Structure formats: C-alpha cells, structure tokens
Amino acid sequence: NGGVAYETTPAQAPRALLPMPQSFAEAVALFAERMEPVVTAHLQASVNLVHFEPGRIEINPMAHAPKDLANRAGALLTEWTGQRWVVSISNKQGQETLRGQELADVAKKKANAARHPLVQAVLAAFPDASIEAVRFAAPTPETETEAEAPLAFDANLDMPSQDEDL
Fold first, then answer.
1. Dihedral over Cα of 125, 129, 130, 135: its sign
2. Residue 33 CB coordination number (10 Å)
3. In 3-state terms, what secondary structure has residue 47?
4. Alpha carbon of 11 to those of 4, 7, 18: distances in Å?
5. Would you state the pLDDT for residue 76?
6. Distance (Å, rounded) from C-alpha 19 to C-alpha 23?
7. What is the pLDDT of residue 108?
8. How far apart are CA 84 and CA 81, in angstroms?
C-alpha cells in the first residue's frame, strides 16, 4: 500500500523528583548521591557559602573553581528537585569551605582526645605515637548522644614488627 510505518516507544516515566535540600551541606550531598564528583568536590573545597535558603544559594568561589560552577549547580538542582534554584556569585567573605570546616572539626576532636587520661598514658608510653582518627562508639540507651558515648581512637604507634626484638 505504500504506507509508512512508525516505530513508537513507550513514553518515559517521569523521573521522581528529589526533596528540596534544607541546607548547603544537604545540597552538596545531593551532588555526591547523583554522581557529580567534580561539582561535589568544588562545592566542598572551592567555595565559601555566603547565604543559603531552599531555592537560593549565594557563594564566593575561589580562583580555581570552574567559571560555570554556579550555573551548573543551579541547573542540576532545578532538574533534580523540579523547583527553580538560583546559585549566585558574591564578593562577600562567607563561611569557611565545607572541607575546611571538616578539617577543623577533626583537629578539634583530636585535641580533645589528646586531653583524655588514657590517651595521654598511651602517648607517654609510646613517644612516637600520634592520634590518627577519633571515633565515638555508637550511643547506647545509657548514653543517648555521641558526646556521651565511649571514646575510641586510632593511633599510629610505630610498633616493632614481630621479627624485631622487643
């Protein structure tokens, strides 16, 4: 008959929209979850947050941040949440980077751990030892918060190998 055949495909199901991030850290976590490692890394370590509210982020990027970071971040957040996001550039100082905040928190935990009597005893017994990481055991019914949980720490003790004499 000379008719034309058309191939049809089922309509794509609409993508489920993600919840609106309620903080800058939640927004950055969304980039990590959605497998955007370059954007995630720059939002963590290359920008100072000036202002955040759902739908609006104001950042002060460092010189090494990509020039299109704000536009890309806004476009992706808009796509993922279905609500318009504006990410703008500011000359205001803003907060320390998320990475800087994380490093400061780790340093504070190490300093607090170093004041613990058991840790001081270990450090005294092993002069070359250093605190490598600080963790808190999971809270129990008796200790409801992380701060009340027992302290656990990793140390680099530079112990002699089993082949060496003690």
1. negative
2. 11
3. strand
4. 21, 12, 21
5. 92
6. 12
7. 86
8. 8
Within the chain, residue ranges assigned H as helices are 24-33, 37-45, 69-81, 98-114, 117-125
Using the Cα atoms of residue 45, residue 46, residue 50 and residue 56 in order, give the sign of their dihedral. negative
Q: What share of the chain is helix, strand, coil (3-state, %, to 5)?
A: 35, 20, 45
Smallest CA-to-CA distance from 41 within 80, 82, 84, 72 is with 72
Q: Is the pLDDT of residue 27 over 60?
A: yes
- Label residue 115 by pLDDT band (50, 70, 90): confident
Model confidence at 166, in pLDDT bands (50, 70, 90)? very low
Q: Identify whether the C-beta of residue 43 lies closer than 8 Å to the C-beta of residue 31.
A: yes
Taking the C-alpha atoms of residue 140 and residue 145, their distance in angstroms, rounded to an integer, is 8
Residue of 82, 42, 74 lying closest to 56 (CA atoms):
74
Tell me the CA distances in angstroms from 80 to 4, 19, 21, 37, 83, one per residue in order: 38, 8, 11, 16, 8
Instruction: Please tell me the total number of residues recorded for the chain in this structure.
Output: 166
User: ∠ CA(86), CA(89), CA(93), 5° rounding?
Assistant: 130
